[in-house]
TrEMBL record:
This is Secretion system C-terminal sorting domain-containing protein. It comes from the Bacteria. NCBIfam families: Por_Secre_tail (TIGR04183). InterPro entries: Motility_Chemotaxis_Reg (IPR052918), Secre_tail (IPR026444). It comes from Phaeodactylibacter xiamenensis.
Length: 578
């Protein structure tokens, strides 16, 4: 249920209400027959994609026999962890399934009738990777040179393997070391871009071999491959720290309108080596930063944008572009961040020192357009070509504000899913959440995808009964909440034809937080009033127009709503009093 921020008493005063809701058109439950773990360790959907026909592709893994709505649809390979690629119709019917046994699945792309799977051969943990070639069950085996190597497998849309290749080299003898492939993208000509990190050595099967004799943990790479998976070029960025903890890793990858690669890089506190100098993560107590970099199609770096945390870390989880060339980045963070040493994110709630989700947007030239922070976690995002942003995440809080004046309300004690769509300018379009049919659930491993027609698909692990709306509900299928199933839902928001816009305007008021002095700007003569978290009027004054300063009365520290009005136009801002 959606309600307005602060308390129900404010609903009378706030004139913004979300009326339209998306429709959940179908729901499916994935589970395993004999669970031995929980919270995404029995099964998970890692990535999703669609093709031009509207069919759905799922990349994930399962342990034990995979069940769909209570019926076993696929057994594992010898009872071990089984990576899988599954194709569904737009209505959710299983069309085919292919095993990728005992590897780590990372990324999926569908382009021009080809299906690309990327991930890692974890030889120290699982052994070689066995890839099912076709419906006959025949397999192709890939071996790793080191303890962990990257791989790509390409199928046609009928599920026939066309080729599979490994990329990597010798590693140190630790499970957490190795050569990783985290994201891939394919351009219109079929060229493949991959990004991730390597340890000690990275051989792409061509003249370029990266070597790093130090004990550095992760070194970033970006490579362009031919449509057959052969190397065209590769670039790297290193940390200046030659020790474990000197990390730089490509986590996100998208292509510009011209087919140029854009990558998001997570890097450690030691910074990065760029053009012979050190780019430091020097923003107070930040641990890990994020670098957004755009290259041309020949591997030349065009520009970069640095994002540093005030405290804690930044972990990019999504990178997308739209048909206007805009660039969208999603990342997790703990406290406020600096973007290129100056810009900060807009918060919709007061700081609580917990993990949050940020959405940022740049134009094609790297000019920041907006950046918002949402107080949810475990986020996933996808962007429609028109620039509409789809978000799936876990609440972890009693309330999550998604705009200046709209929030979702949750029961305390669990991790509940939420889904939302934002417009290209960051404004909220709609938000939705499941109804709890039992105790608050633990939902994790969120994923979301939107197809060309605007249909969205969302998935996550859950361990309590949920109602998704429009008559759809799921139980986990287990007798105990100790094990989690996985939901897959289709969301249709075509019924939401009007653009969601606040009927109020933001009120410029600073400093915020304030210790008692407040500067407030209104375009003309009007009134101001300050409301407590219970909706009580605690202060009011006439405003002469323009920028005017006020001294607030002594009030308890906390979150307040400042409301301004000139004629029929309202202005709102949340104010934190210290």
């Amino acid at each position: 249920m959606i309600r307005l921020l602060l308390s129900s008493a404010l609903q009378i005063l706030w004139v913004l209400v979300v009326v339209a809701q998306p429709e959940v058109t179908w729901v499916q439950r994935y589970a395993v027959e004999s669970p031995i773990f929980s919270f995404g360790k029995n099964l998970n959907i890692i990535d999703m994609a669609t093709d031009e026909a509207g069919d759905i592709y799922l990349l994930g893994f399962h342990r034990s026999d995979l069940e769909l709505d209570g019926t076993v649809v696929h057994p594992p390979y010898s009872g071990a962890q089984t990576g899988f690629l599954q194709k569904l119709s737009g209505g959710g019917e299983v069309l085919w399934y292919r095993r990728l046994t005992m590897g780590d699945m990372r990324t999926l792309a569908v382009k021009s009738g080809k299906v690309y799977v990327g991930g890692e051969i974890a030889s120290a943990e699982y052994g070689p990777l066995l890839i099912q070639r076709d419906a006959s069950g025949a397999t192709r085996t890939l071996f790793a040179d080191g303890y962990r190597d990257a791989f790509i497998a390409r199928f046609d849309t009928e599920g026939t393997l066309e080729w599979a290749k490994a990329y990597g080299g010798a590693d140190s003898e630790f499970f957490d070391k190795g050569d990783r492939l985290n994201a891939l993208a394919v351009d219109d000509a079929g060229s493949i871009y991959i990004t991730g990190s390597y340890h000690r050595e990275m051989d792409f099967g061509g003249p370029t071999v990266f070597t790093e004799p130090s004990d550095r943990g992760k070194t970033f790479y970006l490579a362009r491959l031919t449509p057959d998976g052969d190397l065209e070029w590769a670039e790297q960025i290193q940390s200046p720290l030659p020790i474990d903890g000197g990390n730089a890793e490509g986590l996100g990858l998208a292509l510009s309108l011209e087919g140029e690669p854009i990558v998001s890089i997570a890097y450690s506190a030691g910074g990065l080596l760029l053009d012979g100098s050190i780019l430091m993560n020097d923003n107070q107590d930040g641990d890990d930063g994020c670098l957004l970099v755009k290259y041309d199609t020949q591997g030349n770096r065009q520009w970069y944008r640095n994002i540093e945390p005030q405290e804690g870390l930044i972990v990019p989880f999504g990178l997308e572009t739209d048909e206007q060339g805009r660039i969208y980045l999603g990342f997790s963070h703990e406290q406020q961040v600096l973007i290129e040493e100056s810009a900060t994110l807009q918060y919709f709630q007061a700081e609580d020192d917990l993990l949050k989700t940020a959405l940022l947007c740049w134009d094609a030239n790297g000019q920041l357009l907006w950046g918002n922070t949402l107080f949810c976690s475990n986020g996933a995002m996808d962007v429609h070509p028109d620039g509409n942003i789809y978000l799936s995440a876990a609440a972890f809080r009693a309330e999550v504000a998604l705009s200046e004046s709209t929030a979702l309300s949750f029961e305390v004690g669990g991790s509940v899913s939420l889904w939302a769509r934002f417009l290209p300018d960051g404004q909220l379009s709609w938000a939705h959440q499941p109804e709890l049919l039992g105790d608050p659930p633990f939902s994790t491993n969120h994923n979301i995808m939107v197809d060309a027609e605007g249909r969205a698909y969302a998935s996550a692990n859950f361990n309590q009964p949920l109602a998704f709306g429009n008559g759809w509900s799921l139980t986990t299928g287990y007798d105990s909440p100790d094990f989690d199933a996985l939901y897959l839902i289709q969301i249709d928001d075509s019924n939401i034809s009007s653009v969601f816009r606040p009927v109020h305007r933001p009120l410029r008021a600073f400093p915020n937080p304030t210790a008692g002095t407040l500067h407030v700007e209104l375009p003309g003569h009007g009134q101001l009033q300050l409301l407590s978290s219970l909706g009580q009027r605690v202060w009011g004054v006439a405003h002469a127009g323009g920028l005017q300063s006020f001294t607030l009365p002594a009030l308890p520290a906390g979150l307040y709503l400042l409301q301004g009005q000139t004629g029929q136009q309202r202005y709102l801002s949340r104010i934190v009093i210290e």
